[in-house]
Amino acid sequence: MTGHPPLCLDRLAVGDLQPVSLCVAAGEVLCLAGPSGAGKSRLLRAIADLEPHRGAVTLGELAQDELPGHAWRRRVMLVPAESQWWAERVGDHFPAGDVRGLSALGLTPAVLDWPVARLSSGEKQRLALLRALARTPSVLLLDEPTANLDDVTTRRVEAWLMARLRDGGWPVIWVAHDQVQIARVATRRGRLEDGRLVEEVPAPCK
After folding, report:
1. Which of 45, 64, 110, 188 has its CB 3.0 to 4.6 Å from that of 30, i.e. a possible disulfide?
2. Residue 1 forms part of a structural domain
């Protein structure tokens, strides 16, 4: 496991969300739940420096405001619910030769030669995860990474992702709605509701 520095929020506030202060250590998976509109995605975007916010974010000794946004986001990698694709061909979005994990995610190498327009929402979601990890970040921010997948594929992606998280040792914040999934993957649990983040005691895995 790589010893990544902790991700820390110091009175981070965005929109109507009250200030959040916490640290996520290397290897921890903090799952965030809460009703739609509670601010989960906006919080992730603020951590990734994609949304105006108050307060501070640090990665070890490195402060968010010490780096240009694009350089910060190479380290603090957000995988949004709706991924962005800027080139026509799928393979053009990946570092040369780094395609590890395709078969584990139920994909074949042929997908790299496909036009992005051919991809289903579920294929985009799996490839967005693969693309993020291929860039060797220091932190992962996952916004409902299995929302568009069926149950079988969800479990397959979870198994691959959790193995990579164990090996990589990243601090992870994972937004999810499925309480059963949260019980499987979280080392810490939190809920956004009424403008506040409340951490919960982790439930046993099922």
Report:
1. 188
2. no
